[in-house]
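Ticket 4471: requesting a sanity check on a complex prediction with 5-O-phosphono-beta-D-ribofuranosylamine. Repro inputs:
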Amino acid sequence: MLKIAILASGSGSNAQALIEHFAQSPWGRIEILVTNNPQAGVIQRAERLGVACKIFNPKTQCDEILLLLESSADIILLAGYLRKIPVNWTRAFEGRMFNIHPSLLPKFGGKDMYGRYVHEAVSAAGESVTGITVHHVNENYDDGAIVAQYEVEITPGEAPHSIEEKVRALELEYFGPTIESWIAQLNEQQWR
Ligand code: GRF
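Returned structure tokens:
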């Protein structure tokens, strides 16, 4: 069973879905949740669901937190984590760190493309399809190899909040299962 750490900065709906999903999974367990934001709603969610939570200051505690992550997790999931990941973290967890992005990358990705800014850009571009991307994390924003994408139809110019609702539903449904099947495949390869 793989040990999983979640990094999050916000309300934590994705983190909650991951915790609930892996509570029922034979492949992985959420061991710890780490946040840079002492006000984040995700802290209450983790406490309520019985997951250890660590709040840290990214300006002064990055090395300390990397040691904690290395000792407590096999893989890391970014679930609405808004800080840039330090290069020594991406190297230490190369191939074992994943992000969920609320668009069909490479469209609408990169620096400053997060949360509602993504949905505003999708709406303004008149797209008729959007979705989510689960991808590996490297040293550049939203740039790592894609693991899976899921699409949803939208009306060109649809309101950003309505797009957000549709995309959020995909995130909550698919992030956990996508990571679970990645872990299951890894195990299969090891047994071959
Ligand atoms: C989600 O839209 C996720 O795709 C993005 O940040 C948002 C996090 O929301 N990376 P929440 O904190 O999980 O509710």
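Notes from triage: The chain has one domain: 2-190. Leaving this open until the requester confirms.
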